Amino acid sequence: MAAAHVLVFPCPVHGHITCMLHFANGLLAAGLHVTFLHSDHNLRTAAGSGAQLATVASPPRLRYVSIPDGLPVDHPRDVGRIVELMESLRTKGSAAYRSLLAKLVRPGDAGGDFPPVTCVVADGIMSFAVDVAEELGVPALAFRTDSACSVQAYLSLPRLLELGELPFKDGDGLDEPVRGVPGMESFLRRRDLPSQCRVCTDPENDPLLQIVYDFTVHNGNARALVLNTAASMERAALAHIAPCMRDVFAIGPLHAMSPAPAAAAGSLWREDDGCLAWLDGQADRSVVYVSLRSLTVISLKQFTEFLSGLVAAGYPFLWVLRPDMVGASQNAAVQEAVKAAGNNKACVVEWVPQRDVLHHRAVGCSLTHAGWNSTQEAAVEGVPMVCWPFFTDQQINSRFVGAVWRTGLDMKDVCDKAVVEKMVREAMESAEIRASAQALAQQVRQDVAVGGGVRAACGVHQGAQHDGGQNGGCGDGMNSEFRNCSVNSLFCVCVCVCVFSSPFGFESIIC
């Protein structure tokens, strides 16, 4: 059998890159060759910031390559224009991707000691990457870096429209219950749906909603869908997703299976580990860790409310403040405001090794945007959360934290000093929340130690027919089964399913 060589292609956004690099490290551990595809812009950014991505040598069977994303060099590529980035990749970057992949699949042209590419694992929000690979004869998997519950919500959009729950009607509050997402009827509210649902006024002419629905349904065209999640966190959502896909693998949390240096190697910015020494000087479980990560932006007023609430709560806090995070304010002035208000009880940095911070004995809770990477990292460490979601899947993630796992508090749609103070204190002091967080951590760690992942088989056979989401929810998922797999065998199976699948359905591969 020829050596397996996987091209891993994440959306060129920080959280997607770090998550899929953990996946790449799993492939390396299983003995595979990996080519990791960046955008030219991100490699320039990493080099300019001195990030480890640009300064640390990669392992022998891992290499980084890049293609242009199609945008001008001076384009901000910020959260407000992310749709422009996605569209440019699809219309312009796809040509460079096709040319690169066509070269990498030819014997002798893969470069160095690398065999030809035998499989592509593409970000599930970039449908073109799967299509191009299959057109070139390369089997492709779709990889979603967001939560299974959000994927299920996107697949449920036709049902929500059918029930009249979208678009939201004038006069109806955001706390109105939502019945159109199977299995979530008892706790899901309008405010908990992915953020694209809030701005929907005309479903027939809503490009953003159509984009997220289309790429989610398209995941069913890939040989399999891979999700960075754990069965102990999202078993029900996985069961509902499975009938929509040709096959499903839940293989997370990936960061818990990846060595710590690998996490730093995926960062586009230099991590300031000096904050760890500051944490060393704090008492156990006494520090509030505040990070809204790589894309969230807040106004100066919101910043002031957060700061006032944190100070009033009375606990030391470590706050990650990116230079571009607080509107158009000067970052140095913002950082000085934090230090002055914190009265020597605050540490402010631009970026941190989050995994190390959450693992530190001094951290008592995390005030987070509830991005899926951050949610899982806190879950593995048993750290209670206060969730202030910003957009996309973060809205539904935060509801699961507060109402399903009960490992924290959902503070969405509120940015008020009094509420920040109250919720931070409750997260730091509630024995019930901490016990739930520790219990979930134990379950997730057991997933990692014993199984490392879950395979969701649609129906009774891996090649079961699916309807691609056209029926608004893809069935009830009650016929789906889950099998635990070891970490290495799971990574191998993910590739073997692609390499050895026949036109008539997947081979029966037992972990």
TrEMBL record:
It comes from Oryza meyeriana var. granulata. GO terms for molecular function: quercetin 3-O-glucosyltransferase activity; quercetin 7-O-glucosyltransferase activity. Keywords: Transferase. Belongs to the UDP-glycosyltransferase family. This is Glycosyltransferase. Transmembrane segments: none annotated. InterPro entries: UDP_glucos_trans.
